[in-house]
Amino acid sequence: MADNRQEAEKFTPILSAGFYPVPDSYPKYLSDGLEIKQTKRRIYLLVDSIFVILTVGLTLWFAGLLLWSGMEFAWKSIVVLLLFWAVLAYLLLPRIHQVFTTLYVPDYFMARTKTGDGLLGDPVNLALLGEEEDIHAIMAKAGWVRADEITLRSSWGIVKSSLTGKSYPNAPVSDLFLFGHRHAFAYQQEVDGSAAQRHHVRFWPTPQGWDLPGKQPVDWLAAGTYDKSVGLSTLTFQVTHKIDDDVDAERDYIIKTIRYTDPECKVKVLESFSTAFHDRNGGGDIVRTDGNMPILDLSGAAMRHDKANADEHEAKKAKDADKNHYRPAKLSTKQIMNETLDKTLPPPALGFVGFLTITAAVLTTVVLVLFGAVWLGGDGATLLAEDGIELLILAIAGYAQLVLYILTLKKYAWARIGLLSVAVVAAVSDLWAVTTGNDFHLTHLLPAAISLLVVLALTAPAVREWVSPRERRSGDLIGSVSQ
Length: 483
Fold this sequence. Notes:
alpha+beta; single chain; globular; 14 helices; two-stranded antiparallel sheet; 8-stranded mixed β-sheet; 47% helix
């Protein structure tokens, strides 16, 4: 993090002399190549990756069935084709991207972020010197608002904003990854109260001892873009924000708002940091940049201002870290409610799996109780013992899945693999039944669709990261290996 560097040391020369003396004899090849060991962790990640690839195959199978069922010309064909688009855009393409970006997109720093599926995201267009509280203090002072994390409170805020059309300035932003990590925090500005148009910038701390190319030390990197509208992604066909292609304009806007607020924030430019380029981000939007990297020095910004915003941030950090400290013996109802609303939620995909698992367990329990009541009441003459045994086996299987789900929530990686194995078997069974059935109907796809959604949810990058957080390539299959 930022230290007491002298002003002359903060902006270093681009080139160094290096150390390449003339050899006295013909050189020998010397390498420090790393040997990757097959640890238990590596084996788990390999098994996990196999499930991701299986998911792609199952989704292709289901999409093919959907497309085939919509071939006849009828009103239902429109519904089927819409369902096919949804499966393609939100289920199949993200998994295909996840597989191929892991294989073909390098993971070294190249001034680009990545989406959760591994696609290249927004360009990194700003570097900063300073502490985290300096960023929070100056951004708040300059009129920016911090984006909320995804919690019950923020989820309700999104729903309320969508239904009422009212502004939600602190709405969460989508996840982007750099150095194998999601952004630490983000700031944004709505334009005229419109949720479709906003300035936003995400921040990442740099790894310990990491320098920009050219040996320029920095403490933070940021990616700022301007959302100009909402539309369909040309790469994934999902509904998403469309950004202004001139990412340099947003970069310059961020710098100007900060320097207008605090002229003592110095800035220098690392020219030709990358070649000027035209490209597309993970949403399919065109991005172009001049290749320059401004380095903004925010050191001391928190001290120069009233520190109210920085202190608020520090208080929030202290509150989050207070789990091992003193807590009142009895919390008020309001305190309990606030803690619940502000608690970070598991990924929505994992919540979907939980809803289905709990619902199945409850329904099985109800049927089991009714069966027992009829049997014990003497009215079970028409009920066969085999029926009771079959129902009992289904109940045990359902409760076992519920236990696996609870352990998955508690971040046991093996429990997720177990739950995923059951889901894959169910999906294959349901898809095979639809494929080989003689009387095909659209409603026959429903059980297969639910089974497939469970598999997709459990292999989603967000769920994999929630259960087993690690240094990883965004969208990766196997992940990185700790040395």
